[in-house]
Amino acid sequence: MDMAFTEEQRMIVDMVRRFVREEIIPLEDNLDPDADELPSEKLSELVEKTKEMGLHGLDTPPEFGGPEIDLVTRCLIAIECSQHRAGLYAPCYYAFGGARQTQLFEATDSQKEKYLYPMLRGEKKVFFGLSEPSGGSDPGRAIQTKAVRDGDEWVLNGTKLWISGADRADYGLVFARTGGPGRSGVTAFIVETGWEGFSVRRVVHTLRSAKYATEIQMEDLRVPHENILGDEGGGFAIANDRLSRQRIPYSAECLGVAIKAHEMATEYSKIRETFGAPLSHRQGIQWMLVDNEIDIRAAKLLVFDAAAKADRGEPFRTESAIAKLVSTENSFRVVDRSMQIHGALGVAKDLPLERWFREMRIRRVGEGPSEVQKHVIARDILKESLR
Amino acid sequence: MPVRMDKPWEPLREVSLETVASHLGVYQLADDAGDIVYIGVADARTLFGLRGELQKAIAEPPSGASQFRVEINMAYRTRHAELLQAYLHDHGELPIGNTDIDKRMLGSLCPAG
Question: Which of A169, A304, A332, B67 lies 20 to 30 A from B27 at CA?
C-alpha cells in the first residue's frame, strides 16, 4: 500500500494542525477539563475560519456543499482534529461541522427540503435512534420498538437507549420493527421531537464527559407515512451503511489521541528524573514507548488501508472492522501506558490523559464492540453468516 | 439514581460543611420553604470542589438561599445539565438564581414522576 500522501493532503494536515494548536488548545486553558462545548459566539468565529479553510462540513458530500475530500484525507484530518483534550468526542468542538446523519442524504426531495437542508445549514439538530435496551450490536434482531400502520400514519411504541443528543435535537431517525423478526422487518422513520408521544426520559451518565447519552420513550407516537426514510423494511441497510463507513474516521480519531498521548509520554520521560536519571533511560519505560510506537503504526496502516479501499470503491466492510478493532484497542493501550509513565500526574485532571483514558475505554464498545468487529471479520474469513 | 435529587436539606452554615469534602459534583440551594433557588456544579476548575462552592454561597447566598444538599458525582457536567432540565420541565423555568444558564442551551427532558 502506498502511504505517501499528496502535496495537497500534506498542506491540509499542516493547516488543520495549526488550527488545533493555535485556536483550540489555548481555549481549553479556560474551560472545565470535561467541557464539550464552547460559547456560541466563539464557535461561530471558529466555524468562519474552517469555512475559509474550505473544510467546513467534513461529512457532507460535495453535491450538498461539503468539501471535495476523499476518505483518506478525511482520516488525516480526523487524526489532527482529535489532538486536544475534548478531541475524541468533541473534535475541535465541532468547528468543522457537527455530526451529520448521513442517511438523510438518501431522503426524498420533500424530506430533504424539510429535514436535510435545515440540518446542513446548522439550523436544526438531529439524533440517530438505533440502539435499544435489548441491544445495539445486532439491531436487525434486537429492535423491539414497534411501528403499526394506521391509515396514512404509523404508530410507534418503544424505548431507545444510548442515544446521543436526543434532548437537544429537533428531529431524529428512529428504527422500528414494521415486519417480522430479522433485518428485513426494520424500517427507518424521521421523527420530530416535538410530536406528542415522544419524550426523552433521562440522561444516561457514563464515563464520557462529552455528548452524553439519553433514553427515549415513544408512546403512541404518530408518524406520517411520508416520513419513512428509504423503503419500508429497508431500515437495516440504511443503518448498516452508515456504521461501516463512519467506523473509519472514528478509528482515525482514536489514533490522533494515541499519537498525542505518546508524544506527551515521550517528552515527559526525558524531563522526569528518578533515582538520578531521566525516566527515558529506564528500559521499562523505553519498552512502553516502543510498544506505543508499534501500536500506533500498526493501527495507522490498517485505518488507511480501509480508507483507501473505500475510496477505490472496493468492498471495505471487513477492513473497516479491522481498523476499528485495532485502532480502539491499540489506542486504549497507548493512553494507558502514557498515563503510567506520567505517574500520579497522569491520573490528575491537570492533564488530558485521564479524560482520554475514560473516553477511549468507551471507544472499545461504541460503534460496535471489539467482539462484534471480530464476528464481522470471522464471517468474512469463513464466508458464511455466523448466527 | 433518581433524576431529581431527593436528599434532605442541610442548613447553609459553616458548621454544616464539616461533612462536605472537596469532591467534584453538583449541589442545590433552597430557601426556607425548601424551594430550589439555585442548581450549581463544582467542576474541576473549582479550588475546593463542593466545599469551596458552598463556602462562596454562605458568603453571598444567591436569591435568599438558606439550605443546601450535595451529590458527589464525577459525571458532574451531565448531572448538572440533567438537574437543570428536570427543574425546567417541572417548573417551566430555571431556578431564580440560575441567571448563569442560557436555557436555550439546555435540552428538553421529560423525566418520569
Answer: A169
Residues A272 and A350 in one domain: yes
Helix residue spans in chain A (DSSP H): 7-19, 25-28, 40-52, 71-81, 109-111, 117-120, 139-142, 235-271, 283-311, 317-342, 344-347, 353-363, 370-382
Q: Give dist(CA A75, CA A309) in Å, integer.
A: 13
Domains and CATH numbers, chain B: 10-105 (3.40.1440.10)
| B76 Cβ under 8 Å from any chain A Cβ | yes
In the annotation, is A293 catalytic?
A: no
Chain A environment of B73 (Cβ under 8 Å): 205
**A2 in any annotated domain:** no
Q: Do A95 and A144 share a domain, yes or no? A: no
Same domain, A188 and A285: no
For residues A270 and A225, state if they share a domain: no
Judged against a pLDDT cut of 60, whether residue A386 lies above it is answered with no
Residues A278 and A199 in one domain: no
Q: What is the pLDDT of residue A112?
A: 94
Residues A93 and A167 in one domain: no
ipTM over 0.90: no
Assess whether A166 and A201 both reside in one domain. yes
Q: Which three cell numbers stand for residue A63?
A: 453535491
| A221 CB within 8 Å of a chain B CB | no
Q: Does A200 touch chain B (CB under 8 A)?
A: yes
Q: Does the structure show a pLDDT above 90 at B55?
A: yes
Chain A residues lying within 8 Å of B1, measured CB to CB: 205
Task: For the sheet with B36-42, list strands across it.
Answer: B10-11, B67-72, B25-30, B36-42
- Please state whether the predicted TM-score (pTM) of the whole model is above 0.95: no
Residue A81 is part of which domain span? 7-102
